[in-house]
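Quick one, T. Sequence first:
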Amino acid sequence: MTQVAPGARRRAAIAADAAIDKKAEDVVVLEVGPVLGIAEFFVLASAGNVRQVRTVVEAVEAALVAADASTPRSVEGLGDASWVLMDYGDVVVHVFLTETREFYDLDRLWADVPRTEVEPPTAAQAPSAT
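Structure tokens:
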């Protein structure tokens, strides 16, 4: 079994948290490295409309730049924004319209890899507004 670079795991977590912050749904981190070889993690997130897809993409990009100056090698699909793929090398972020994610069903395709569901913070965990 290969060792996952801590930076890749951290980038995946930052991307997932940024998606959650923008109200993305069904956010999961898939550890695809052992079976894929071209990336360590996929981050999958769903959004209810095109505007939200773009907002999530912008938030992920901003969070990764702020964290460690990571910029995507490429971004695909931003034109129609039904499925945007952001390639960070060791982490690939997929932001889908809900119906597009259901249609392509990457969750089923990658069902055999380790999976971490990312949940929004509960009211008790959320930072208080002061």
